[in-house]
Amino acid sequence: MSRNTTKQRGLFISFEGGEGAGKTTQIDRLMTWVHARNDPVIKTREPGGTHGADEIRNLIVTGDGDRWTPETELLLLLAARRDHVARVIDPALDDGTMVLCDRYVDSTIAYQGIARDLGIDKVRTLDAAWGSAGTLPDLTFLLDLPPEEGIRRAQLREGADGETRFEGLDLSFHHALRQGFRNLATEEPERIKIIDASRPVDDIAAEIISLTAQKLAG
Ligand code: TMP
Fold this sequence. Notes:
Elements: E1 12-17, H1 23-36, E2 41-45, H2 51-61, H3 70-94, E3 98-102, H4 105-115, H5 120-130, E4 139-144, H6 147-156, H7 171-187, E5 192-196, H8 201-217
Parallel strand pairs: 1-3, 1-4, 2-3, 4-5
Bound molecules: thymidine-5'-phosphate.
């Protein structure tokens, strides 16, 4: 598909965090705000976002914690991302549409690179070549929460989707994950905003909307 060079590229925002951090609720709140401005916007998620990537998601998020080697898990995630970026994210951004994505590259760095111990450099290199291939978020909201609270919330909604593979991993995994995300935010404070997700939903939404408005204002 040829790229549209006349329109301004859409803003790409990702939402990150551990299990049960409230990303879905906050994406919906921001989506409502963007709609009210009459700006074009889509929401999507990873792994997933296309038919094929949703099939890969099913392989990744269900079953036992050790169903896949960490390397296989990474390659599955990157395969799903390539499909998603090529078919949904890049075309939307090229068309001037804002993209709100539930998880993206930072999840791969934190989950597979840090918590699964594959190494940040390896994950970044493979992702840059084969996954995101250069399509990176302009802004990232890291919904930060103590893992004990996140897992508790995630377990409350459990059952409907069977997506328990990561929730079932031990607490040290989730602590490594949280620290990993926080380190990434420290490295890139301009892009990754740490949001205290233990506060009331309305307060969190107000902060996210305010930071998005600032970004849009340039
Ligand atoms: P979700 O529960 O937020 O929808 O995310 C699905 C699971 O996939 C979650 O446990 C985190 C995991 N995941 C990774 O391990 N690496 C990744 O790159 C992505 C996008 C998700």
